[in-house]
Every structure is written in C-alpha cells, then in structure tokens.
Amino acid sequence: MLRWALIFLIIALVAALFGFTGIAAAAAEIAKFLFFLFLVVCLIFLLSGYLRAGESRKRGYESGALVKKRAGMGNASCGVSSDGAHARVSYLEAN
Quick check: 27 and 11 in contact, CB under 8 A? Predict the structure, then answer.
C-alpha cells in the first residue's frame, strides 16, 4: 500500500513537472489518501500485536506454572526462551 502511495506521488511530481496540473492534483490526492490509509492500518496492526503480546505473556505464565505443577517438580522455576521459530522450555531447580 505504501508502495502505491509512492508510485502516485512520483506520477504527481512528473505530471506537475510537465504542466499537467489536473493529473498532478488527482495523483497527489490518491497518494495522500493511500498514505493515510497505510498509517491507519499500521496503527491497527501495532495495537493488535501489542494487545496479543500482553495476553500471551499472561497465558504463558499461567501455563508455565501449570506445567511445573503437573511435572511434580516441586520448588522449581520455569523459564521459557525463544529464538525465532523454535521455543525451548527449561526448568531450573530453585536453591
């Protein structure tokens, strides 16, 4: 979407350079609309990701406690680390 906004901006600049003011104004309006639409969609996805990350952090803590309890590990702490596509769960004995 941002790519299309840049394409219409370039079209508007080239049309203005050659004196086609009507085409330049129309292309500039399209570019501006697409840019602001891109910003709105970007903010929606940003907020959605932030809210989902908060939920998964809460869920991960609860499921970690549940795994620790089911495994019968007693007084152990659970650490979860992720390196992109793979996730590892390690249990460390509390001293």
Answer: yes
